[in-house]
């Protein structure tokens, strides 16, 4: 395994731990904002522990009547 791959995997695992500590995986309704917030938290990895707190806000268009 290459060192770059190992670093990326460790980075993402740290992001998963941060998301779990924030309670993002608890049961509840999944929506655009929650899914996006979990994704950017995982991608931010160790940055979560130095003050990053990424949030995603999105609106889904409503169907026309």
What does this structure look like?
With 65 residues, this protein is mainly α. It has one domain. Helices cover 49% and strands 0% of the residues. The longest helix is centred in the N-terminal third of the chain and has 19 residues. The radius of gyration is 15 Å and the shape is elongated. The chain starts with a helix and ends in a 21-residue tail after the last helix.
- Overall, the morphology is elongated
Characterize the biggest β-sheet: none
Oligomer: single chain
Q: How much helix, percentage-wise, in residues?
A: 40-55%
Domain module tally:
1
Task: Considering the chains and any ligands shown, give keywords for the structure.
65 residues, mainly alpha, 2 helices, 49% helix, elongated
Give the helix/strand layout.
Layout: H1 3-21, H2 32-44
Helix pairs in contact: 1-2
Brief synopsis:
The protein is an all-alpha fold. Helices cover 49% and strands 0% of the residues.
